[in-house]
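ok here's Zinc finger BED domain-containing protein RICESLEEPER 2-like, seq below lol
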Amino acid sequence: MQGSTSNPLQQGGQNQFSPKHINLDEDEKINVPNENVNEAASVIDNNSKMQDDVKLKRKRKKSSAVWNDIIEKRVLSFVHVPPPCMGREIGYAISACLKEWKIEGKIFSISVDNASYNDKVVSTLKDDLSRVKKLPCGGRLFHVRCCAHILNLLVKDGLSMIKSVIGEVREAVKYINSSEMRRQMFSNAAQQLQVDDRKLALDVPTRWNSTYDMLSLAINFKDVFPRYAEYEPHFKHVPTKQDWVNVQHVCEVLKVFKMCTNIISGTDYPTANLYLMEVYKVKKAIDEGVLSEIKFIKEMANKMKDKFDKYWGECHLLMAIAAVLDPHQKVEYLKFCYPRIYPPAESKKNIEEVELALEILYDEYLEMDESSTKEATSQKTGSSSGSTASKPNEEASSGWGVFGKFLKNVQVVTPKKSELKMYLEEPVLMLEEVDIPKFSLLDWWNTHKLKYRVLSKMASDILGVPVSTVASEATFSAGGRVIDPYRSTLAPSTVEMLICGGDWIRKLYGVKKKLKKEDAPCEVVLPIAKKI
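and the structure came out like this:
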């Protein structure tokens, strides 16, 4: 189980809405709106600078609002689920973890991959958690599907249509990389043709992004392979000119997916407002492929479109709300991209659905804020009532209290606009394209937290929701390295200590985990060509 904090807004040492995320070993990630930073810190210290920072924050109870705009994650638990590992059993195991940490009443959402049993996991958790506390927006934001997994399915289906082209390039690179002599001969051939590139890559067939890297690097040597074949009579895997044309077209399509995957799969930086833009880019690339005159690109795009419609054919509320909470997108961005993703009638319906969900969600946050304010006021009044009981009623004696009651009866007060309406009515923030990557949404909300007191708390929760289970999958993969054939009899509690302790120590000292050797593409660095 992984815990993470994301852009929390802390007001006077307390935070009613700042999200925490929990990743579980079965690819589940849960977003937790914390009700009290100090209380949560006593349960689990998962803030950016460990215990020292938590102690510091406890000393800041009377300080002004503070934003922590660094997305954090921690492994909280790594539990063993005895067979049969069905959806219901996994759901019960997660519920037990949440109760152990006393956070079952603070869950905002859960992110899972698209395995069929996860639907049962989510429904089980939804039923259990809704008994403890009402879920935001009626639970419509609770189930978040892993976008990285959906992209993976889209691309794999598309690449299955061009196996022969990819296979020819893969075998060519594999052949050259099999000995130092072959690499040297290939390097000499590259020098003769004045090709300055020094690197090839051999992909991992199960990792489509490594396949893209292999193709994009190999195409730089398209003229070198035939020249190398002249020196090496046993080299039979020489891609034809048409093969390289096809590879070029494939790379143009995959480049979009590669860039989107890099953003969606990030675990340290992405906020949820970035995701809808990436989905729009994917849909645009697929639509262009469907209209392509190249037969195999059209077939590949049609297969991708089927998967896109299956998983993103319906309105994704979380992505849309997060986009609206970006001041340089707002509802206007939905009006721009939805007609390009959905049919006209469905597009209009989806925009109305998002606007309604926004109002419902804001009203819920406003209600929570008002109840917490009343509770704080009542506690303050109760503590001061003893000292004020003996004082004379100056207000009554001066007559100003009676005048105040008179004003309430005769003066008409204009209803105040909600923060949400004020925000939406303001013009969209115009940014130059070169300035967009530098724009920090968290800094913007930090600057406007006094103007949008409630809406900024809502934004801190929504923007921190993860739409990828990459972090939890990496944790689960780490379990296989801990429980290797030499340590297969370790107790579950020992494994949990190793996994959790390793994760926390790496974060404490800023150590990044490396890819497993079998997951990383094999780099083929060509030697310096010898003079002939």
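fwiw The two ends are 59 Å apart (CA to CA). kinda neat tbh
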